[in-house]
Design the sequence.
């Protein structure tokens, strides 16, 4: 009795792409409901980074599932009333942690097309590996919000101009690039065998 031939990389690659696209949609919808709780560790870690990274800005940080609020020591003048007031920053941590459903969709699509074991362990490890990138994105968004409230005047923020430029560049990386790039990189790191056995051969044999 001869062993069944392994599936050709081309069809497997197409099936992987279709399943991944569908899974991203479904898991993103599920994420919109669960994100207040799943993203709470992002807010908790960001709290630490905010206080340790820029203690001169932070008076207090308030967290709840789905929100983080930062009371700052930076005072700006209200353009309408002319009165000074401290800046308050607000954000939804889930908005910068949506890479998790993308990562899980890729992991699920790889499992459904190749049936390799260890998916649950990789899912948990991927969740942990994504946290630093998500924290970076959230902190950069809050700092950029603060810079905007100060009209990008470094003296109002008690920093040098080059530090303000770093905030701007960090915002572009953390908010515009990292949320979608990080889950793909983490998946490639944790699913190297699938990538080598399926993705690369399928790409080479594409018509």
Sequence:
């Amino acid at each position: 009795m001869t062993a069944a031939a392994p599936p050709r990389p081309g069809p497997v690659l197409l099936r992987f792409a279709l399943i991944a696209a569908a899974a991203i949609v479904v898991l993103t919808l599920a994420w919109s409901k669960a994100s207040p709780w799943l993203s709470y560790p992002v807010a908790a870690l960001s709290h630490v980074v905010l206080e340790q990274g820029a203690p001169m800005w932070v008076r207090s940080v308030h967290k709840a599932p789905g929100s983080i609020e930062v009371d700052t020591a930076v005072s700006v003048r209200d353009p309408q009333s002319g009165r000074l007031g401290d800046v308050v920053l607000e954000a939804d941590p889930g908005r910068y942690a949506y890479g998790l459903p993308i990562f899980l969709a890729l992991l699920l699509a790889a499992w459904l097309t190749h049936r390799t074991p260890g998916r649950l362990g990789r899912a948990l490890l991927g969740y942990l590996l994504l946290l630093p990138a998500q924290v970076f994105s959230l902190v950069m968004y809050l700092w950029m919000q603060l810079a905007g409230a100060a009209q990008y005047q470094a003296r109002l923020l008690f920093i040098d101009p080059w530090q303000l430029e770093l905030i701007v560049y960090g915002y572009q990386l953390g908010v515009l690039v990292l949320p979608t790039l990080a889950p793909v990189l983490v998946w490639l790191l944790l699913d190297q065998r699938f990538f080598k056995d399926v993705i690369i051969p399928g790409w080479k044999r594409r018509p």
